[in-house]
Task: inverse folding
């Protein structure tokens, strides 16, 4: 039987160790910043007291923005996860996905920047379910669009003439008049007939799609949908807003909002136990001092350089990677796994790992992370 493990997120009495961004990730973030240098330079020059420049010293900027060490460490972890998400999306889309801009803006938000879109592109959401409106609004507002909503077809027909949106997302199943009827009326009114309409529906038969197209719909999104699929179809009919200026906030009183759930946000490096992050191909991203000491190494850096691949050089059982694959079935949930590892001096140590697979909000597997305790 496995021993009882303490709460993963209980912190030790001492301060957590300060985390610095992994150099390769720091380079990647600074590259994204340099790509927006015109907007960034304008914002930075607007202050009498120039704040730390993240392009020159990213760690100093984070120390300025997050005076509390726990918050700073959390910001470091989230920035590194966002970098992985950006790299994954870039590789899949060859740089063509509109989601890339959304992830980049979230990175900039963690670095204290805020932006204003150059255009006032407006999307009207018509849906009778409040939760659907909230989800769609969050996605579109994060992408830079202005959003209005209506919870009935009748209300939408009145509102649309007032706001003249650039695009309409229209649910089909509504109680008063359905989405097909709303679209018919929109296409009969001269002032609204040119507005592109994208249907959103849990109905996904060929007949439904054919009817939507016949009534003038320019696209069709079946529920449930992914963030990437939604934004790709929206941007087919509405250009993606470009940021006008990134305004730098010198101090953040609250951590930025983001799409990691509460458990995946908990910083394992605030634990008093050995902690690690491992890429999906088996490379250590980060280990803490406690883990290095437990495995017989003098420092985390020595451990990172000595173990190029955990599957090949750490575990006694060469098939241990297959056990970790169970984590992919329960994303962001901790799984307790017993294991045996080779310490630096060659002796075998029995341990218990608590491991989880971490995904981004687009369903991409980013990394494994967890804590380790010796098993007595």
Result:
């Amino acid at each position: 039987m496995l021993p009882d493990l303490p709460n993963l997120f209980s912190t030790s009495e001492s301060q957590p160790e300060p985390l610095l961004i992994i150099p390769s990730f720091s380079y990647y973030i600074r590259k994204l910043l340099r790509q927006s240098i015109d907007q960034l330079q304008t914002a930075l020059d607007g202050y009498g007291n120039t704040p730390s420049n993240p392009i020159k010293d990213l760690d100093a900027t984070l120390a300025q923005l997050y005076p509390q060490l726990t918050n700073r460490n959390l910001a470091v972890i989230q920035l590194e996860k966002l970098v992985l998400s950006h790299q994954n999306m870039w590789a899949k889309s060859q740089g063509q996905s509109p989601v890339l801009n959304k992830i980049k803006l979230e990175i900039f938000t963690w670095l204290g920047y805020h932006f204003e879109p150059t255009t006032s592109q407006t999307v009207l959401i018509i849906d009778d379910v409040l939760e659907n409106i909230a989800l769609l609004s969050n996605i579109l507002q994060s992408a830079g669009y202005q959003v209005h909503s209506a919870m009935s077809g009748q209300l939408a027909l009145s509102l649309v003439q007032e706001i003249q949106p650039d695009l309409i997302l229209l649910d089909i199943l509504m109680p008063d008049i359905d989405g097909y009827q709303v679209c018919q009326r929109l296409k009969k009114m001269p002032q609204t007939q040119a507005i592109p309409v994208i249907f959103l529906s849990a109905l996904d038969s060929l007949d439904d799609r054919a009817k939507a197209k016949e009534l003038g719909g320019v696209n069709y999104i079946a529920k449930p949908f992914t963030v990437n699929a939604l934004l790709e179809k929206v941007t087919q009919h509405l250009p993606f807003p470009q940021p006008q200026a990134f305004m730098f906030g010198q101090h953040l009183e609250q951590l930025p909002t983001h799409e990691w759930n509460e458990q995946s946000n908990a910083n394992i490096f605030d634990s008093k136990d050995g902690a690690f992050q491992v890429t999906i191909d088996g490379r250590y991203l980060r280990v803490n001092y406690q883990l290095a000491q437990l495995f017989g190494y003098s420092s985390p850096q020595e451990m990172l350089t000595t173990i190029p691949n955990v599957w090949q050089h750490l575990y006694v059982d060469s098939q241990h990677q297959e056990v970790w694959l169970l984590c992919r079935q329960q994303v962001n949930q901790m799984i307790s796994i017993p294991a045996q590892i080779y310490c630096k001096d060659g002796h075998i140590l029995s341990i218990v790992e608590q491991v989880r697979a971490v995904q981004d909000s687009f369903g991409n597997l980013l990394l494994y992370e967890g804590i380790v305790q010796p098993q007595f």
Remarks:
- Residues 1-13, 44-48, 258-265 have pLDDT under 50 and may be disordered.
- The two ends are 11 Å apart (CA to CA).
- Residues 96 and 107 are 18 Å apart (CA to CA).
